[in-house]
Amino acid sequence: MSVPFFTGRVEERLVGRPAVGVRQRRRHQQRCGKTQALYFLPADVIGDGFGKLEQVAAAGDDTRVQEHLQYVRRTWVDGCWRPATWSVFRQPVRTNNDVEGCWHHRLNTKASHGQMNLYQLLQLLHDEARLVTLAVRLLSECGTSRMQRKSYAQLHSRIFQLWDEYSDGSHSASSLLSACSRMCRR
To answer: What pTM, to 2 d.p., does this model score?
Structure first.
């Protein structure tokens, strides 16, 4: 699974420093990994879950981890990007990479990888635009399905299983966060 948009660079900056010992590096990775998994929690629980991470970090982590947590708090929990805008709780498709990738690949193939003149390109785009109504109708009638690699299908299945267990009360928010964090590291 890819690194979430809001923590990858900060984690690299914090964890990748050569002065960090092995044990301390693992602790940093664990804390940063949990902030990377915050988006799996329901939006109304993210603030409390993040507060617990801050409490644990305040007990013994160095200033680099606390700087990271302050950044996440300022920008993603309390800042202009509220948790409701980036929480993916119960959302089956969390990216548009598969759609864009397939469409761009098909368009590039038809366009001979940029070897068309302007008029040929306009004709190709016009033909694609006519297919939009068919695609919308198929999507609304659930006539299409999403292509997905087996490894990602298994990962998404496990995430939905964890979400079901959380909704049933079998998991707390912190155990859901820990489990999702471990899956993101794999």
So the answer is: 0.60
